[in-house]
Amino acid sequence: MTNSGNPYFQVTGTFDNPNISALLILCCLPHSISYGRNCRSKLVYAAVFLMLFSLILLKSRSVFFAILIIGLLYIFKKNRKLFVSSLVVLSLSIPLLFFLKEDSANGRLFIWQTVLTSGVEDILFGFGKHGFSQNYMLWQAEYFNRHVESDYSQVADQVNNPFNEYLLCLVNYGIIIPGLIVFGLVKWLNKLDFIFDPSKVTVFFIMVFALFSYPFHYYFVIVILMVCLNTTNRRMSNHSLPLKKPKIVMVLSFPLVALFCIGNYSLMEMEWRRETDSLNFNEISYHRLEKKIGDISEFQHDFAYKLHHAGKFKQSNRQIEKYESRRTSYDVTLLKASNYLELKEYGLAIVNFNLAKKMIPSRFLPKYELYKIYSAVCENHQLKVKIAEEIAQTPLKVKTSYTISVKAEAKRFLSIHGK
Predict the structure, then answer these.
(1) Which candidate, 138, 98, 139, 131, places its Cα nearest to that of 115?
(2) Distances in Å between the alpha carbon of 201 and those of 65, 149, 191, 197, 365?
């Protein structure tokens, strides 16, 4: 593992996020340990050691927590005299894991709190497939509208996932479906003997990891989960059923169909990438691509952005409407506000800049845009003073030349025109 170059993580491993790399290694660990115990191979032991060392480098708290839980269950099963002391160790470890990345932990707690207070209006059936992505940033904006001086304002950011698969399923589909899934898995793992089954331990690791991250967004996790469930069920049935020819054809055709779909999607994405990187914006090509991959939110965002820079502000907002049917985000809200500003629809521009400001209170851009509108267009001295005070009081989360100059301009204005 070498330094990733990622501004947020020193080591990421194979993926852009160290948690997913850590999960992949964690899923390999139970079977590796089981195989090592059976064959007594030094090479396997060395591989296990490298896996554990890699997990330490990746610093994934979810993985550490999952290992601690399985270790506690193992001790409870093998030597209950040590269970109380092990429980104390676990209790002390939880605060350490929290403070290992305190801002990140506080951010997740804030997301969960916001969802549980605002996203339970339709807890029985949920908000639909795009329920979380379409509503969360609006809930976050509403929270900061009610709690202007909240300490969470410095950790809040753009959120596309609640970092909890069960909570995501709850918001999207209601309590019935996730309840049945959790009940089935808990019943499947109801005996502590599962800790001696590497396949069941792997499933347990994924279940614990899903409490703090988004593993089911990665296809390899789904494949591992299906393989482990199938392996365990066949072992529990005490015999393996022979595959008949139709079943063999189905089993062999599935990866071929999946490969074809992935290849076709990759070709479309490569075409999209060529259009994105092109110096000349071709609206006709984008409309053609929209028929193929128009259900991808990122494509609608990119299309709206390109239309904005081409000076087609109304068309850009129409693409934003399609985007917001699936997702709401800070960046797209800013883009919509900028479109209205260019169209001289200042009332709607102010509404959307204010919404973006409440979504992520630590950002300076929407506040400064409002400051400029109140200065040049509305000529409202009271509102200008108010937004200048807000800019001056906003802590510098990331020091850049832009944020420093904006803050300095607001302070200069207040020194002359402030109350």
Answers:
(1) 139
(2) 14, 44, 12, 6, 47
Q: Which residues of 271-299 are buried (b: 16+ CB within 10 A; e: fewer)?
A: ebeebeeeeebeeeebeebbebeeebbeb
Pick from 262, 335, 256, 319: which is nearest to 286 by CA? 319
Query: Residue 406 half-sphere exposure, CB side, CA atoms within 13 Å?
Result: 25
Whether the full predicted model's pTM is greater than 0.90, yes or no, is no
Per-residue DSSP letter, 379: -
Which among 352, 362, 325 is positioned nearest to 133, based on CA atoms?
325
**pLDDT, tens only, 326-345:** 999 999 999 999 999 999 99
| Contact assessment for residue 142 and residue 118, using Cβ atoms and an 8 Å cutoff | yes
Nearest 10 degrees: Cα torsion 99, 103, 106, 110: -170
d(CA 396, CA 17): 26
Q: What Rg, from alpha-carbon coordinates, does the chain have? A: 26
Cβ atoms of 195 and 201 within 8 Å: the answer is: yes
In contact, 335 and 327? CB cutoff 8 Å? no
Q: Tokens in use for 92? A: 């002390």
Nearest to 408 by CA among 366, 368, 373: 368
3: confidence class by pLDDT, cuts 50, 70, 90: low
